[in-house]
Amino acid sequence: MDASTTQSVQAPTVKLLINGKLVESKTTQWRNVVNPATQEVLARVPFATPEEVNEAVANAKEAFKTWRKTPIGTRSRIFLKLQQLIRENMKDLAALLTAEQGKTLPDAEGDVFRGLEVVEHAAGIGNLQLGELANNVANGVDTYTVMQPLGVCAGITPFNFPAMIPLWMFPMAIATGNTFVLKPSEQDPMVTMRLCELALEAGVPPGVLNVIHGGEDVVNAICDHPDIKAISFVGSTKVGTHVYNRASLAGKRVQCMMGAKNHAIMMPDASKEQSLNAVLGAAFGAAGQRCMAISVLVLVGEARKWVPEIVEKTKGLKVSAGTTAGADVGPLISCQARERVESLIERGVQEGAKLELDGRKPQVDGFEKGNFVGPTIFSGVKPGMTIYDQEVFGPVLAIVEADDLEQAIEFINANPNGNGTAIFTQSGAAARMFQEEIDVGQVGINLPVPVPVPLFSFTGSRASKLGDLGPYGKQVVLFYTQTKTVTARWFDDSTLHHGVNTTISLK
């Protein structure tokens, strides 16, 4: 456990949200929420007790009895109000997010905004949760489907998007008629709590949305609890695999969005300036702490000569606290994260990759205690090297080379992950070949981070995803509902039959 759990620090306590009220936890186990740019302790977050977890679930179960029957228009209007409140509080939400997570203020606003888009989508639930009808499938018989909520659902979210990913989860779950128990990251729960407070202000009834905090014990309790029907998870592959296996064995519906190793192909005919700017932004934005970050650049053919330009362009990025004007790269989330990334850089050197740009130990005036690693670039990277095989989750770009597009596609398809990928080219034929042949769930064409808008679903694949249905979009409506098929006949004199019919026919 982090040493901060044992420190006695006079800082505000993060509350639990149970049955519509902010509740002080009775736990004896706490963790500090630390500003990663300054090491200032911002708050103390509780690791909820088993009794508190059970209380949150029990209230959600009770609230489901009435919430499931709430008219769909009433549910929709709550999310219309919530999106208004998020817009009104955008600057404050971004400032809070930056303080506890570290990303730059503009990036923090983007984090909130991408979640806001899902809230807007949830407000249209009346058009999303529609069943089907086939009239007169047999004599006087109609068949139709209804999409009914499951009950109590739960979400487990990571530190890197403390606004967007919770907003991927609870709005769609609640809009479809479920109640929800959310466990945000214990590293930066404050902006998540603020968003949940705004949800209450928007009209979410008591018990419909609950928040508990904690670590492994709370995660396991969520996986095991018999009254939780479905779990949505975003985080590391190790934890996600554990959640999927444990919760599935307990009979739950589970979706897990997990680790990645995202490649971008740079073709020699790409618009160089725009393409390199896009790739470097995707590699080093949020200090590389995105599951959709471009961490591998495949230079094809003549583009292999562009390494010096890539290095020079990267040197122009500004490393500083997220609150600093013009900052491009903020701190990593924790001291442990910084130490891990630095050790992986050292492994890269030891294993034979060429360190083109070393971002370790940058000088950041005024923030000497921050968890900073500057943009780092390796060339000559190969499978089998730790910096290629592992998800670094830091501002480290690995460059590999390929003779042609076919070789580049084969290289990417050999990697087990399938979260996102991109190609930069001016050739329609090359782009079409890429989108057809690449075995990755989300594809960008001249766009480095192909996270879809909420009209579509997040569709990571292979080792990056467990479960059939992705978060938000049309797929998540299916995830959070049970389709019930009804076959009905209403008798009148014209359809009256005499005698017992023992065949399977509906005639």
Describe the structure.
By secondary structure, this protein is α/β, with parallel strands linked by helices. The chain has two domains: 16-258 and 472-486, Aldehyde Dehydrogenase, Chain A, domain 1 (3-Layer(aba) Sandwich), CATH 3.40.605; 263-445, Aldehyde Dehydrogenase, Chain A, domain 2 (3-Layer(aba) Sandwich), CATH 3.40.309. Helices cover 36% and strands 21% of the residues. The protein has 16 helices and 22 strands. A seven-stranded mixed sheet has the order 14-15-16-13-12-18-19, with helices on both faces. A six-stranded mixed sheet has the order 9-8-7-10-11-21, with helices on both faces. A hairpin with a 2-residue loop joins β5 (133-138) and β6 (141-149). α2 (72-88) packs across α7, α3 packs antiparallel against α7 (190-202) and α4 (105-122) packs parallel to α6. It is globular.
